[in-house]
Amino acid sequence: MTTLLxxxxxxxxxxxxWQMTKIFDLTQVGRKSDDSQISNNNDNKVQGYLMLGFxxxxxxFLVYGLLKWGHLALGTPASEHGPDYDNLMTISFVxxxxxxxxxxxxxxxxxxxxxxEEGRKALYYADNDKLEFxxxxxxxxxxxxxxxxxxxxxxxxxxxxxxxxxxxxxxLYAKQFAWEARYSGKDNxxxxxxxxLIEGVNTMGVDVNDPNAQDDIAxxxxxxPKGKKVLFKLRSQDIIHSAYMPHFxxxxxxxxxxxxxxxxxxxxTTDEMRQDPAIVEKVTNINKxxxxxxxxxxxxxxxxxxxxxxxxxxxxxxxxxASHYNMQMKIVVDTPEQFEAWMKDKGTIVKAVKEEKAxxxxxxxxxxxxxxxxxxxxxxxxxxxVDSTAVKK
Length: 393
Prior knowledge:
By secondary structure, this protein is α+β, with helices and mostly antiparallel strands. The protein has helices at residues 2-27, 41-69, 82-113, 129-158, 270-274, 277-299, 336-344, 349-370, 379-392; strands spanning 167-175, 178-183, 217-219, 222-225, 229-236, 241-245, 250-254, 260-264, 312-316, 328-334.
């Protein structure tokens, strides 16, 4: 309501200013004025100074933005390749800011210095091969360096030799609007899966007849061990999703009909990341906001918000539908010992399917027993009918 009121006031203020300018124009009727549409020296001077003023505003807003929202950038990376990723991002930003500051300064300064003046003519400047070479070779070298460094970093991140490296294979399955994870079990090989096989508890369409699927485990909360390289195989049930794990600097599209993959080695457990100073500060700020909102909710007779606790999250980074914002899954990075303890009591998908079939069979058998079989007429009733007939005779 407050936003609507503010917008209404701004619209009315704009209309009032517009009407005042019309009234001012009417008061100038009969006075000598320059009504031509051709700019004069004064107009050009005003425009030149406005360009310098806009440059100052641009730089001031740039500094303000960095100070105001700079803390929202992700902090300590929680994966082995994270520092390389952050270094590439930092280098790119530094170059972009340098180029941005220089080019904007030159653009606005030249617009001021060479503003229009009566009698001034543009200078014809012939081609200068040396100048052309300089401003061509500098971007070429800079971009080539960024591309080569990025390619090197990308290759290190993406290259995984499943036969030589000690990796754990995990599948992430995307669907509107949820995630499921499947562990490859002791054989470290995922069983085949197909969307046509989805039925009952087999929500990922795993082929339970495949030998490699016999030890596969499905979970709703993803746990991974610290220090262990994890190879994620990504599938989608319906449309294109994007598996995004920001604190691990990992993102990969999930495409229907194909399997994509991404690998990383987690370096910080969930408990360790919760003690990171930047995370502690963020959690404190979030809980201040939640406490303020909770006070408002309690005053309205509603339930207060629970305190926020940091967790790693798997998000969808594609706008995949109405509940896209809610498509997330909790990720827990454990110590190897904690991970083994967590995995110990997890049942396999094959076992769950067998139990479901057994339960359905038992339910069907029980239903048959409950239906009474066709019985002959009650003997007592028959005897009574016979006796009454005999009496009548």
